[in-house]
UniProtKB/TrEMBL annotation:
Family the entry assigns: Belongs to the TRAFAC class TrmE-Era-EngA-EngB-Septin-like GTPase superfamily. TrmE GTPase family.
UniProt key word tRNA processing: yes
Positions with a binding annotation for (6S)-5-formyl-5,6,7,8-tetrahydrofolate: R22, E85, R124, K458
PROSITE patterns xref list: G_TRME (PS51709)
Protein name: tRNA modification GTPase MnmE
Coiled coil: none
Cofactor: K(+)
Main location: cytoplasm
Binding site for GTP: 230-235, 249-255, 274-277
The species this protein was found in: Cohnella kolymensis
Length: 458
């Protein structure tokens, strides 16, 4: 158990109808009782009860706010310590003055993530769950939120634990054969190693395969909007974002910088990048923008290639169509409110109908069709109904890659007559690595790094 008592504002700062000051630790109830005025003495309160009253400044006697105080006694609380939550009126002033008076009466200011860190240290959650809390706070869309929530409930841990169990049993089996070599079962053992390591390896690979999808859900699909100057890229970005972040102008080539916008499109997070028009250019400033947009194209998960319905296909566009046809590209034929000059049949040669969308960014027409095309491209149904266990965390992914490598080493070695006690090292290493996802034997610096990513009050 951690000895001192910590406090922080647990809700987002800014306009809201209520705000919460969270206090955790052995002195939590005592500390709040010193500054809380109500009919009942908080020290007598039983666990999981709510109390109405006022927070006062005992020194001046001033009433700071009318509040509800919730008492949750150890171990049935978020941190597994005594926790008191004070719900104050919203707005910065009330909640800050309440926090201040709590800090003056026995609590210290919590570091970012310290509540979750205590939950971990007190054994209430494992490390994968703690990290999921970070993702939960940060997740930008409903779907990413669901994934993070599933993980915080331990979905990933539930998959890792039996994998480690299988490895431990294998190690035990190998151990027996090292201790009793006269049984001469080395060949049998090699087969058992291949079988068991192979089974765990398949699960690791499956988790890694879905990691990409997890990354997309958490960070957003990197969506690059390309096209010639004046095709309507910035207008499209604005229509999608429904706010004017990119500058729209009539002079060709004025959007020189990449403008970024995060949006949620029927639950799918997109990171939209508006690029400078792609075309051969001699103007230096514009060329920088153009080069940057080529770079952005390489990184893109999704490409929106904007063509102008009102102009014949340009040579640059022909090149782009060809260059991007094997990528996740949707052709956006923009300006359908203007007469058609574009030869659509040329586009149709390389792109099936569900990858061509007709719209008017200016009039906001056809945006829904684009949204449908994007969602059917990325979420062919199986995400919503399927298993939402995605590995969405860079540290987990790195550890899974490491586990994959040591499992492959063990399998190769077992086929190559390598002494079994050497193979055993690989298996033990895999067990360790997978344990890192759960936070077994996590060193202090790793913990600090993880928990410092939290915002205050979590
Ligand atoms: P960008 O250079 O590709 O980013 O193009 P912009 O978004 O800056 O648009 C260039 C011009 O085309 C602006 O004058 C827009 O108002 C106009 N524009 C964009 N979309 C449409 C559209 O759907 N219909 C019409 N009529 N004009 C559009
Ligand atoms: Zn633009």
């Amino acid at each position: 158990m951690v000895e001192d008592t910590i406090a922080a504002i647990a809700t987002a700062l800014g306009e809201s109808s209520i705000a919460v000051v969270r206090v955790s630790g052995e002195q939590a109830v005592d500390t709040v009782a010193k500054v809380f005025k109500s009919k009942q003495d908080l020290r007598q309160a039983s666990t999981h009860t709510v109390h109405y009253g006022w927070i006062i400044d005992p020194e001046s006697g001033a009433v700071l706010d009318e509040v509800l105080v919730t008492v949750m006694k150890a171990p049935r609380s978020f941190t597994a310590e005594d926790v008191v939550e004070i719900s104050t009126h919203g707005g910065i002033v009330a909640v800050k003055s309440v926090l201040e008076v709590v800090l003056r009466h026995g609590a210290r200011m919590a570091e970012p993530g310290e509540f979750t860190k205590r939950a971990f240290l007190n054994g209430r959650i494992d490390l994968a769950q703690a990290e999921a809390v970070i993702d939960l706070i940060r997740s930008k869309s409903d779907r990413a939120f669901q994934v993070a929530r599933r993980q915080s409930e331990g979905a990933l841990s539930k998959q890792i634990i039996p994998m480690r169990q299988q490895l431990i049993e294998l190690l035990a089996h190998v151990e027996v054969n090292i201790d009793y070599p006269e049984h001469d079962v080395a060949d049998v053992t090699a087969g058992v190693i291949r079988e068991n390591c192979g089974a765990v390896l398949n699960q690791v690979k499956e988790l890694l395969k879905r990691a990409d999808e997890g990354k997309i859900l958490r960070e957003g699909i990197v969506t690059v909007i390309v096209g010639r100057p004046n095709a309507g890229k910035s207008s499209l970005l604005n229509a999608l974002a429904r706010e004017n972040k990119a500058i729209v102008t009539d002079i060709p080539g004025t959007t020189r910088d990449i403008v970024e916008e995060s949006i949620s499109l029927s639950g799918i997070p997109l990171r939209l990048l508006d690029t400078a028009g792609i075309r051969e250019t001699s103007d230096t400033v514009e060329r920088i923008g153009v080069e940057r947009s080529h770079g952005a194209l390489n990184e893109a998960d999704l490409i929106l290639l904007v063509l102008n319905n009102n102009e014949p296909l340009h040579e640059d566009e022909r090149k782009l169509l060809n260059q991007l046809k094997d990528r996740s590209t949707i052709v956006v034929v923009n300006k359908i409110d203007l007469p058609r000059q574009l030869d659509i049949t040329e586009v149709q040669k390389d792109y099936p109908p569900d990858r061509i969308v007709y719209l008017s960014a200016k009039e906001g027409k056809g945006i829904e069709e684009l949204e449908n095309a994007v969602s059917s491209m990325f979420l062919s149904g199986d995400v919503e109904s399927g298993d939402l266990t995605y590995v969405s965390n860079a540290r987990h992914i790195a550890l899974l890659h490491q586990a994959k490598a040591s499992l492959e080493d063990a399998i190769t070695a077992s086929s190559a007559q390598i002494p079994i006690d050497l193979i055993q090292i690989d298996i033990a290493a895999t067990w360790d690595t997978l344990g890192g996802i759960l936070g077994d034997a996590a060193g202090d610096s790793l913990l600090d790094q993880i928990f410092s990513q939290f915002c205050l009050g979590k």
